Amino acid sequence: MTAFPLPRDLRGYGEHPPDVRWPGGARIAVSLVVNIEDGAERSVARGDVADDLGAHWLRHRAFPGQRDLDLESAFEYGARSGIWRVLRTLRRHGARATAFCCASALQANPSIAHALVRDRHEIADHGLDWDTHSALAPEVEADLMQRSRRIIEEITGVRPTTWYSRDGLTLHSRDAMIDEGFRYDSNSFDDDLPHDGADGLPLLVIPYAGDTNDSALLSQYPTAASFSSFLCSALEMLGSEARPGPAVLSVGLHPRIIGRPAYIAALDTFLTRVAESGAWIATRQEIADAWLSETAGG
Ligand SMILES: [Zn+2]
Questions:
Q1: Is residue 269 within 8 Å of residue 228, measured between CB atoms?
Q2: How far is the CA of 204 from the centre of ligand 1 (A)?
């Protein structure tokens, strides 16, 4: 028989989340996350045994020991062209995002770092490289986290607010995040609202989202229209359903994908709808701060 409680929280706020509002009385906080990882992916060019297939160019296959210049170039598009189209679109809508930055991607193109700071986007740590942490020993992971945090701080002049793993946490990641001084955690998909850290850790969790994320373009969403429709459906549902409490709608964006000419309209359409809805577009740090101040003592 299973012993309770399990080391997981399957209850959360349940039917009665805190009935608070975001600044301006908004019911929905929209968090835009721009992933700066192009050029930080595994590649034969940097000495890995095979290339990373995360560019979502489906015709590609990993060729162990052999560079795939086409695949490399699909990532390069994000750093060379896509990011600027994304930043222009955000500027046009007056929208500030949280940038999940791989340190080596900023080293490869510091002008991206400068533009993110100039446009007042939040700087977050997405690792030294766009790599897997799942099997790392605790001291190795902590060392990587510290190195990436220092490099990002050096290039941007800003201390990253949080660390987000490419593909999940180890059992030690959150302790290392606290030791490194990160202010909140986004490594979760478990709720519509921020909540206290797992296992009583003093680290607020702001869940991220894998569905409202452009990484599914070319598979789930073949066109900009289908992706924007998916995002707008989430916005409308969260705004109209009869429930207590606010919500956070996280949207994940990748310059090599949403920055393509055919897809950027999805972001433009969604941001237009967000403005009409009265939702609050905020960085994740602003969401953390607002949540903590609204729920303090409650
Ligand atoms: Zn990412």
A1: yes
A2: 20
